[in-house]
Amino acid sequence: MFQRFGIWLDWTLSRFHVAFIEGDRWKLYLQGLGITLEMTVFALLFGTILGLLIAIVRTAHDQQRPGHHNLLLGFVNGLCNIYTTVIRGTPMMVQMLIWGFVIFATSRNKVMVGIVGLSINSGAYVAEIIRGGLMSVDIGQSEAGRSLGLNYFDTMRFIVIPQAFKNILPSLGNEFITLFKDTSLVNAIGAAELTYHAMRIGGRTFDYMPPLIGSAVMYLVIVIVFTWLQGKLERRLRESDRR
User: Fold this and answer.
1) 65, 91, 84, 177: which is closest to 132 by C-alpha?
2) Which of 5, 84, 113, 167 gives a 20 to 30 Å CA spacing to 91?
3) DSSP code at position 187
4) What is the pTM of this model?
């Protein structure tokens, strides 16, 4: 039995050697991981900005006083509602294919296309996360800001958003982790991220198991690190509240 195990172990190690060491293929994985992290950071940045703007519009619309309805705000809120409904109601893979093969069919910069697709998708979810956080802040805080002479956006920036941030941080952290994993879908349009290189190496060696398992381990390690950092930040915020 030990002899069979030894033979199996040697065979498995040789497969991983071919997939990672031979021909310095490990450099391709690191290159793909760098592109993956780059897309994640930019998509989260743009998605957060987009989501924040949409959340502010929708919150302003929902918090209008009875009998005071702004037609322009209502129209923009309707567009935002359509956007979040369509994006959250359709598969991420289908959206990415539309971006890559319909809207940007002639573009060769697939990483840029991937960032656009990920940003638009993330923005819809971030908008709902932030809107929930803004609505969780007592409306008396907004009224106090307005009584001090602040306009709506200054009230949001200086009073409401800082209080809502602590409430939405866990959900934003989870969205960041989900977005990081969703970058693997950009492989479908040919962006050279981690999964793309793993599939290419599997095609060259005619053995997909080692590169795919290796890339899965890399995703897992990064997610564990992100989760640890998120938990550490949340603990610091809780400690600051106690003080």
Assistant:
1) 84
2) 167
3) G
4) 0.88
One-letter amino acid for residue 45 of the chain: L
Start-to-end Cα distance in the chain: 61
The DSSP H or E segment spanning 13 is helix 2-16
Of 222 and 237, more confident: 222
Task: Fill in the amino acid letter for 82.
Answer: I
Nearest CA-CA partner of 47 in 120, 99, 132, 131? 120
**Please, which residues have CB within 8 angstroms of residue 234's CB and are 6 or more apart in sequence?**
169, 170, 173
Rounded Cα distance between 193 and 31, Å, is 8
The number of helices, as runs of H, and strands, as runs of E, in the chain is: 10, 0
Structure tokens at 53: 């703007």
* Contact (Cβ atoms closer than 8 angstroms) between residue 114 and residue 193: yes
Query: Cβ distance 207 to 114 under 8 Å?
Result: no
Half-sphere exposure of 208 (CA within 13 A, CB side): 5
For the residues 183-203, what does the mean pLDDT come to? 94
d(CA 80, CA 54): 6
Residue with tokens 């702004």: 70
Contacts (Cβ under 8 Å, ≥6 apart) of 86: none
Q: What is the pLDDT of residue 160?
A: 80
Q: Which of 191, 201, 187, 202 is closest to 24 using CA atoms?
A: 201
